[in-house]
Amino acid sequence: MSDPVSSEPVSSRLPTSSTQRIPVVNVSASGKIHVREQQGVFQKIRQHTNTLLIAIFFIIPFLNFNGRQAILLDVTEQQFFFFNITLWPQDFTVLAWVFMAAAFALFFVTVYWGRVWCGFLCPQTAWTAMFMWVEAKIEGNHHHRTALDNAPLSASKVGKRLSKHTAWAFIALVTGCGFMGYFMPARDLYIDIFTFSSGFWTGVWVWFFALCTYLNAGWMREMMCLHCCPYSRFQAVMFDSNTKTVSYDAARGENRGPRKRNKRGTDIDKVVKLEGLGDCVDCHLCVDVCPTGIDIRNGLQYECINCGACVDACNQTMEKFGYQPNLISFTSENALEKGQKPSIWSVKALGYASALLVMLVLIVMDLNSRTDIQLNVIRDRQSLYRVINSQPDNEVIENSYLLKIRNKTQQAAFYNISIAYDNVSAYEFEIETETLVLIKAAEQLEYPLTVTNVMRDNLGMTAGNARDELTFLITEVNSAAEIDSQKPLNQVSQESRFFRP
């Protein structure tokens, strides 16, 4: 019977250093990595998650709310619509808090699960997987794709490549439309693009994002993760000894080496022990299925996106040889080296959780402090005042103002204009212009307004000053009948001055 164990010396089968990478098997002459197709628990999770996220990405722009697109980032009109909420430029602090909260949420998850975002949720990973799926359907499995790359030019090769790139271009164009559908009406956008009737700049932006998708997911692929993504460079700073990452159990797996497939408990088990071999059969499947082409047995590397493909591949191999699973698994340093269960308490995790909580509180406070009315009061600077009646016992002065009132809601509304002033003033102030106005949704009304003052009978001239403080109040009402209601729907105010001799 031939020796089932490799005759290679044990010392030569020790794990390579992190700077010495085992060559990737499925690499064409052009240097392109052809990832081996892999099935398993984590790959099913990835497929379902990516499919769900891509579907959500394309469906959201087609959702309607109150007769309009539910989520629309209208940069031209400087309005961001989120269902019944409209954010204007002055409300963009809310978006800042949202982005910061998302960042701290990502950091918080990273402390416990490492780079799981990259493996299961990142758009680059999702679109790359979709492009690779199309490539496999047209050109075949990883062996066929490698052979096709190395094959001389032929009609069959040209046909397959043309079909693949046509499918990629179509997906990229639809993706460009999907992205721009968040910034302009999606239903009209798709029709305009595919009927070649879109405006110049609309077409430019759609084709720009289509080109980016085509290059990133079709050509660059793992290069984006290895060289362009900043997260891969600093994500290790958030790790600690309890962070779960894809890890290789070197104590159990080394020394690695090939052997015949058999079940433990038979003669092969004695041979393994005599030769000092571990559970790793050195099949290289963990390298073949890796999207970034690394060998996880070299230890933790920034190129690893925690997709779990090598975990599924290794577990299938362990099952074939009758070995225990999880030679490669999602585990922590403490669990791997000390056998300790991961602790949920971490200074980093608590810090990120606290920051996330602060961001969420700020979002709620900012949303609650928002008003659906914007008011800007501008005095007439050409003339401080005008004297209408100059009789000493009945002097009437008027001031002119321009009120800029913006309805920040998505429905037309009635607004009542009123003024408040110090009751000890010697004058009573009145608005001479109509005080009830109707403003359309998302419209700003520039409303000229005149205010006059009248001497009170019970106060003398000496009680007044040459300048009085006024407060303009804009109150939203359902109709003229609700002007005197004690519970206004919304109200905003701004102070100004009334000048007189």
Structure description:
Keywords: 4Fe-4S, Electron transport, Iron, Iron-sulfur, Membrane, Metal-binding, Transmembrane, Transmembrane helix, Transport. This is Cytochrome c oxidase accessory protein CcoG. InterPro entries: 4Fe4S_Fe-S-bd, 4Fe4S_Fe_S_CS, Cyt_c_oxidase_cbb3_FixG, Electron_Trans/Redox, FixG_C, Helical_ferredxn, Ig-like_fold. This protein has about 500 residues and is an alpha+beta fold. It is about 40% helix and about 20% strand. The protein is built from 16 helices and 16 strands. The strands form 5 sheets. Strands 8, 9, 10, 12 and 14 form a 5-stranded antiparallel β-sheet that branches. Strands 13-11-15-16 form a 4-stranded antiparallel β-sheet, with no helix packed on it. β3 (about 70-75) and β4 (about 80) form a beta hairpin. α4 (about 125-140) runs antiparallel to α6 and α6 (about 155-180) packs antiparallel against α7 (about 185-195).
Concise synopsis of the structure shown:
This is Cytochrome c oxidase accessory protein CcoG. Residues 270-299 form the 4Fe-4S ferredoxin-type domain. The chain has 501 residues and is α+β, with helices and mostly antiparallel strands.
Task: Pick out its properties.
five-stranded antiparallel β-sheet, 4Fe4S_Fe_S_CS, alpha+beta, 39% helix, 3 domains, Immunoglobulin-like, four-stranded antiparallel β-sheet, 16 helices, 19% strand
Percent of residues in beta strands? 15-25%
Overall strand count: 16
The total domain count is: 3
* Oligomeric state of this protein: single chain
From the alpha carbons, calculate the radius of gyration and give it in angstroms: 35 Å
Level of helix content?
25-40%
Unreliable runs: 1-25, 458-464
Shape: elongated
Termini Cα gap: 118 Å
What can be said about the biggest beta sheet? 5 strands, antiparallel
Structural class computed from helices and strand pairing: alpha+beta
